[in-house]
Amino acid sequence: MLTSNMPSAFHAGERAMQQAVGVAERMAQVGEQVMRDHMPLQHREFFTQLPFVVVGSVDATGQPTASILAAPPGFVSSPDERSLHIAAQAQSADPLAANLHVGASLGVLGIEPHTRRRNRANGVVTALDDDGVTLGIQQSFGNCPKYIQARQPVFDAARVPGPARISAGLGPQAVRLIEQADTFFIASAHSEAARDASGNGAAGTQRAHGVDVSHRGGKPGFVRVDANGMLTVPDFRGNFFFNTLGNLLIHPKAGLLFIDFSSGDLLQLDVHADIITRGAELASFVGAERLLHLRPIRSVWRPTALALHWRESPETLWSPSLQGLGAWPAAPQP
Question: Looking at the domain 12-315, which fold is it?
Fold first, then answer.
């Protein structure tokens, strides 16, 4: 159940999305049951066995960033039910490095792709040291296994990051990675967290809503790249929490993370987001309940930046939830 430290399970943007699909009353009850201001033992133990976590942060302009931190299992620990320690440092090319400070809002996603388990831990940085970052938990909850592809990550310390490339648009490598992707991660922020990051709010205070980072999965090619560089992503039926879309309704900026699971290359994108709820474009993708139009503002390409390699089994890789979902119609031939 919620405690007095968590005045509402869902904020106004999330509730507006829930109301639009007729589940607001039910989700108010669900939220009180599953949203916690502490981590249950099962979640605390789950994080300790992971070789990576995905981290959402926000910069001084209110721009969210999705990042990944990797190390041998055990690098994440939970000293008590209200704190999470990540013993890893963000690389200098990762925008996360500049966003970390005491009082910063972070969203942390623990995901184990080969078992399709995932849990969220959102909160505020309470300490930074040479060993890593400590997060004070403000919101903890689990997620369903939908749309997760069953890759098994293995830590690989031999990987050496190459020089990062920053640009305003998408280069050919970035386009290829996006068009082949079956997975990406998206960071979003409530306007309260964005305001605090800009220095105009009460940074470090106990805030009801902050930064969130979420998984998105689909068949390869489910993210379409248009000629003008716009990304269009179908939004499939989920758990009706609407953490990401609720944030975007209030604060339409997001950070995307695409991973090349063969090379360890990373692509981080700053985007402006629009939510599409009707129209012929939406109807053209079977199974999509909404679309996201994501306009890139900045891209960071980081070659061999991820110290993981991945084991895949074609027999078990694809999520059963992908059955019945469509694909983008083929582009008309000139």
Answer: Pnp Oxidase; Chain A (2.30.110)
